[in-house]
Amino acid sequence: MSEPEIRGWCPGALTPMASADGLVVRLRPPLGRLSSAQARAVAAAAVRFGSGEVELTSRANLQIRGVAEADHAALLAELAAHGLVDPDPETERARAIAIAPFYREAAEITSLANILTEALRAAPLPSKFGATLDIGSAPVLAGTAADLRLERAADGRLVLRPDGSATGWPVTAETLPAILTKLIGWFLETGGVRNGRGRMRKHLIGKHDLPGGCNVAPALPAALPKPGPVGDGQLAIVAFGLMPAQTLSALADLSAEIRLTPWRGVFMPGLRALPALSGILAYPEDPLLRVHACTGRLGCPQALAETRALARALAPKLAAGQSLHVSGCAKGCAHPGPCGLVLTATPKGFDLARDASAGAPPLRPALSPAALLATPYPFGAP
Ligand code: SF4
C-alpha cells in the first residue's frame, strides 16, 4: 500500500489547502464562537463560494470546501468584514485552541484563551501544535488532540498539563503566562520541534526532565456529551461534521451565540430546544453518532475509495455501542485515534481492523463495499 502523504501543516483561511474539490478554507473564529451575524456570514459564504455546506472539524474549527482559487480573495474579504480572518498568519495559527463549550463565565474563558493564544503566537511552534481550554468541573476534551491542556483539579485549582503527562502544574491566571513560557521553552530547547514538526505527547516519551512542580492531576474526564440539552443550552451534532449552510443560518436565527465543539457539532447557550433541521442528529441513540468518515474520494486526492456513503449505509448494521471509522486511506484524518471498528481503503478494497487506528494490520483484508453491504451483520451478530 502506498503511504499517505503527511503534510505536517493545517490549512487556514490565509493558507488554504488544495483538495480534489477545490480549496479548503479553514476558519478559527476567535474564542471558538460565532455571533449570529458571523454565523449567517459563514453560511452565505459557503453557498456563494463553496459547496453549500460548512464542515465542522474535530479541532473545533470550521471549513468551507470547494472554493475556486479565483474566488479565494473575495471569500477572505467577506469573512474579514465579519472579524473572521486575521491579517497575520501567525495569529491565525496561534488560535489552535479548542475550548470546552459549556462554560457560563465568558470573562474567565476569554482571559485564559488570550493568555494561551499569546503564548502559542510568541513561540516558533509547529502549525499543528495546539491547546485545550477545558476548565469545567471535569474535563470533556480528553479525546481532542492537543499538546497543552488547561484543566481543573478535583479541588478546583487550574492545572496546566502537557499532553501525555498524567499531571501538570497548578496555575492561576496570574502565574499561567510564566509557566507556559517555561514549558514551551523546555519543549523547544529539548528538541521537541524537528523539521517544523513536533507533538508534546511523542516528545514526552522517555523524558523525565520536565520543569519542576508538575505534580497535580486533573479531575477524572467526564463522559462525552450527547446531543440535545446540556447544561443551559443545546448541543447539535451533524453526521460527519457536515452542516448544510441553511441549517447554520437557521441556528443563527435561534441563538445569539454559536460555540464550536470538537464533536462535529455546535453548542448554543441559552437555547431551550433544538428544532428539526436538516443534517442535525436529533436522537441520542442515532448510530451515525458512532460513525466517522473522512472526505474520501469526493474531496481528497489521496483517497482510495468513497467513504461517507458507505459509512452511512453501514451505520444501521452496527451493534449497540459499536463505533466505526471508514477511512479513505491509512492517514485516518476523521478519527486519528483507535476506533472499535476501522475500515481502511486500500487499492484492493477495505481492510477491517478492530480497536485500532486507520492503517492497522487487518483482521480481514480487501473487503468490497458490496460484500459489506450485502451482509446483515458484517461486523458480527448483535
Ligand atoms: S484519511 Fe481521508 S481525508 Fe485524510 S488523507 Fe486519507 S483519504 Fe484524504
Automatic annotation (TrEMBL):
A Pfam family: NIR_SIR_ferr
Keyword Iron-sulfur applies: yes
Single GO MF descriptor: 4 iron, 4 sulfur cluster binding
Alphabetic keyword roster: 4Fe-4S, Heme, Iron, Iron-sulfur, Metal-binding, Oxidoreductase, Plasmid
InterPro entries (UniProt xref): NIR_SIR_4Fe-4S, NiRdtase/SiRdtase_haem-b_fer, Nit/Sulf_reduc_fer-like_dom_sf, NO2/SO3_Rdtase_4Fe4S_sf
Ranges where the Nitrite/Sulfite reductase ferredoxin-like domain occurs: 18-81
Keyword Ion transport in record: no
Enzyme class: oxidoreductase
EC number: 1.14.13.83
PANTHER family xref list: BLR3264 PROTEIN (PTHR32439:SF9), FERREDOXIN--NITRITE REDUCTASE, CHLOROPLASTIC (PTHR32439)
Record-given protein name: Precorrin-3B synthase
Source lineage: Bacteria, Pseudomonadati, Pseudomonadota, Alphaproteobacteria, Acetobacterales
